[in-house]
């Protein structure tokens, strides 16, 4: 029997105790990074122990710390995967200007530019639904983000926080009997989407983020852990370009971000790298998502053994068939989403097994790890999130018995 391993995309539900402990922290003088108190440090360490132990109890093969080091002060937050880095980078400042609502230059053939978040094409098309609090369409809590007002760098606090994440996860892995786990980290391309008020050049700003993120990647790798680089921008940027660009122009734009990530990962073994991409975690129509068939070859250029992507939600489940035509490079492993964060319906184990078997029939069961579309924490109710992980493991066992 070939065992199908299980994992997930990273974020898991925070406990009320951890949320309260984070909310109680005083904010530092820069207005961004809350002070790390001894009390919070103790609560965080115990919470990581508990969340890893719960993954072990359920039967998750490859765990992480639930992204608990990416602090949340409310039960629902779609953006912590991104905003956590603000605490770890110098040169950022909350200016009081909400750049998401400012007018942005339109793109033109050969000149692809991101527009403001508010001008996303899916959001504009379904503005009435997005603006109706009873529609079920949700963007999550929208915060005012900082801007780069000076040279950016990975700060002393950033080094302390990633070491804290590493120490907490390694201790929890040991306590639960795991040999390996992963930590999530942001990509240069996704990070560079914040407002630049200093560099004045898109490529120069992207290059600066390469240097910023590399110390975090290196620290995780040096600790013997797997890095999951979260880079939704590779697919999600397409919706944030107006008017819609050609496939060729978008891929050229995306190739720069792939190159930036590879430069940041230079020297780190591919076996220690997972790439996660998605089309954004918000609960909406997603009618302007870029086709995975057109993107797959470009993202496979990332120096990562594992490729994590959405494959369970209603907009992207059909795309499993692309792997019939796209050869998976030797040594690579697919980590498709088999259960989704975008619905409260808990998938049946038989459906889970069928979804796994589709991929296994094409690339081989040894090249498939069953996971989630995106992070479950902060996006659906905790009870539902854990039930989805339980059915993921049940379905993987069923698929394993049939493979």
Task: Explain what this protein looks like in three dimensions.
InterPro entries: Met_Synth_C/arc, UROD/MetE-like_sf. This is Cobalamin-independent methionine synthase II family protein. The chain is built from 13 helices and ten strands. With 403 residues, the chain is an alpha/beta fold. It has a single domain (5-402), classed as TIM Barrel, CATH 3.20.20.210. The strands form two sheets. A seven-stranded parallel sheet has the order 1-10-9-8-7-6-4. A three-stranded mixed sheet has the order 2-3-5. Helix 1 packs antiparallel against helix 2, helix 2 crosses helix 6 (156-176) and helix 10 runs parallel beside helix 11. The model has no long low-confidence stretch (mean pLDDT 93).
| Total tally of structural domains | 1
Second-tier CATH architecture: Alpha-Beta Barrel
Looking at CATH, which topology would you report? TIM Barrel
Number of helices: 13
Coarse morphology: globular
List low-confidence stretches: none
Determine the structural class based on helices, strands and strand pairing.
alpha/beta
N- and C-termini, Cα separation = 6 Å
Strand order of the largest sheet: 1-10-9-8-7-6-4
Sheet with most strands: 7 strands, parallel
Helical proportion, percent range: 25-40%
Rg over CA atoms, rounded to whole Å, is 20 Å
What amount of the residues lies in strands?
5-15%
């Amino acid at each position: 029997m070939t065992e199908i391993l299980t994992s997930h995309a990273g974020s898991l539900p925070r406990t009320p105790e951890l949320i309260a402990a984070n909310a109680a922290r005083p904010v530092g003088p820069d207005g961004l990074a809350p002070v790390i108190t001894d009390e919070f440090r103790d609560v965080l360490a115990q919470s990581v122990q508990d969340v890893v132990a719960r993954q072990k109890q359920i039967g998750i093969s490859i765990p992480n710390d639930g992204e608990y080091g990416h602090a949340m002060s409310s039960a629902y937050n779609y953006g912590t995967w991104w905003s956590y880095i603000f605490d770890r980078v110098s040169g950022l400042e909350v200016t009081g200007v909400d750049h998401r609502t400012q007018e942005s230059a339109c793109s033109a053939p050969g000149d692809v530019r991101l527009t403001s978040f508010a001008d996303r094409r899916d959001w504009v098309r379904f503005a009435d639904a997005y603006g109706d609090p009873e529609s079920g369409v949700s963007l999550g809590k929208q915060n005012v983000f900082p801007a780069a007002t000076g040279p950016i760098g990975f700060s002393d606090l950033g080094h302390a926080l990633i070491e804290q994440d590493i120490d907490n996860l390694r201790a929890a892995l040991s306590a639960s009997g795991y040999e390996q786990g992963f930590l999530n980290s942001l990509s240069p391309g996704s990070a560079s989407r914040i407002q630049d008020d200093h560099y004045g050049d898109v490529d120069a700003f992207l290059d600066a983020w390469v240097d910023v993120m590399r110390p975090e990647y290196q620290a995780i790798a040096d600790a013997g852990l797997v890095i999951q680089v979260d880079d939704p921008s590779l697919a999600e940027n397409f919706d944030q370009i107006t008017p819609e660009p050609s496939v060729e122009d978008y891929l050229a734009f995306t190739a720069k971000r792939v190159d930036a990530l590879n430069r940041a990962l230079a020297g780190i073994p591919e076996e220690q790298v997972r790439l996660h991409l998605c089309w954004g975690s918000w609960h909406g129509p997603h009618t302007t998502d870029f086709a995975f068939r057109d993107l797959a070859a470009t993202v496979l250029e990332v120096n990562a053994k594992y490729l994590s992507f959405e494959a369970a939600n209603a907009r992207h489940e059909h795309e499993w068939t692309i792997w019939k035509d796209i050869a998976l490079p030797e040594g690579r492993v697919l980590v498709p989403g088999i259960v989704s964060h975008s619905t409260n319906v808990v998938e049946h184990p038989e459906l889970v097994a069928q979804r796994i078997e589709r991929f296994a029939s094409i690339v081989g069961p040894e090249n498939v790890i069953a996971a989630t579309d995106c992070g479950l924490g902060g996006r659906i109710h905790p009870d539902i999130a854990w039930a989805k992980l339980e059915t993921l493991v049940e379905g993987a066992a069923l698929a394993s018995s049939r493979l």
